[in-house]
Amino acid sequence: MITSIEQSGTGPTAETERGQAGGTGLLLVVSGPSAVGKDTVLDALLARPDLPRPVQKCVTTTTRPPRPKDGGRGMEEDGVDYHFVSPARFNAMVAQDELLEYAEYADNYYGTPRAWVAERRLRGIDVILKIEVQGGLIVQEKAPDAVLVFLQPPSLEELERRLRHRRTDSDDQIAKRLLHARKEMAQRPHYDYAVTNDSVEDAVDAIRAVLRAEHCRIHNGASNA
Ligand code: 5GP
What pLDDT was estimated at residue 222? Predict the structure, then answer.
C-alpha cells in the first residue's frame, strides 16, 4: 500500500532540499481547485520575458493513463505532460525515496521527482510544482523554504460556471469537483499567498511579483528554522 509509507523525516534533509545559500532557485508550489485556470496562468507566466530568473515547471510522475488534451486534438505525452508509470514502478520510486512528495488523487497516484527539483534549484533555476493541496503541504514540511501560492477563483459560483463551460464533466462529476474545491479552499490558510484568477494577466503579474519579492527576501523559512 503506497499510502502507508511515512513521508516525513526520511531521505535527504530539508538542508539538502534547500541547496546552497546564494544563487539557489526558488521552489514555488501552485495549487488550486480544478478549472481555476492553473495551466493557463502558468503557461502565460512561463512565456513572460521579464521573470527574475529562469523558471521551469516540473514534469511530475503519475500512475494515471495519458488522456486526450487540447480539446481532443492530441494525447498527453510521456515526459512532457507527465512521466506515466505503472503502480509497481511508482511503489518502487516511493520505496527508494525518489519522490519529494506524493499523493493519491481521484484513484491515481502523483509524485514529484526529488532529484530533478534539487538539481534545477542548485543551478539557480526557479522550479514550479503544479500540485494538489495535500502534496503542497508535504512540500512545505520537507522543504521549509518552499513558497506556496494558492490560485483561487473569484467565487465558487464562477468556478462552477468555468467547470460547466469546459463541457468535459457530467453534472455528477461537476458536483464532486465543487465539493473537492470547497475542501481545497479550506486549506488556503496554510498557503503563503492567495492569488485570484479573475484575469489571467493580473494573476500572472501577481505570481511574478511573488517571485520577485521572494528573491529579495533576507530570511526564509529555512534560515529561520
Ligand atoms: P490531473 O489528473 O488532472 O492531471 O491532475 C490531478 C491533480 O493532481 C491536479 O491538481 C494536479 O495539479 C495534481 N498533481 C499533478 N502532479 C502532482 C504531483 O506530483 N503531486 C501531487 N501531490 N499532485 C500532483
Answer: 55
List residues near ligand 1 (CB under 6 A).
60, 64, 101, 103, 105, 110-112, 130-132, 134-135
* Residue 190 to residue 102: CA distance in whole angstroms: 18
Measured from the Cβ of residue 153, the count of other Cβ atoms closer than 10 Å reads 22
Domains and CATH numbers, the chain: 3-216 (3.40.50.300)
How many Cβ atoms are within 10 Å of 24's Cβ, its own excluded?
Answer: 19
What integer pLDDT is reported at residue 220 of this predicted model? 67
Q: Which residues contact residue 48 at a Cβ distance below 8 angstroms, ignoring those fewer than 6 apart? A: 204, 208
From the CA of 135, give the closest atom in ligand 1: 22
Residue with cell 534533509: 13
Averaged pLDDT, groups of 10, the chain, 225 residues long: 48 40 85 93 97 97 91 90 98 98 93 98 97 96 97 94 82 88 94 97 98 90 46
Which segments of the chain are extended strands (E)? Answer: 27-31, 55-57, 61-62, 68-69, 74-75, 83-84, 99-105, 108-113, 126-130, 147-152, 193-196
What local confidence, expressed as pLDDT, does residue 86 receive?
Answer: 98
Residue from 28, 60, 82, 93 whose mutation best tests the ligand 1 pocket (most atoms within 8 A of CB): 60
Q: Tell me the CA–centroid distance for residue 129 and ligand 1, in Å.
A: 9
Helices 200-216 and 38-46: crossing angle in degrees, nearest 10, is 60
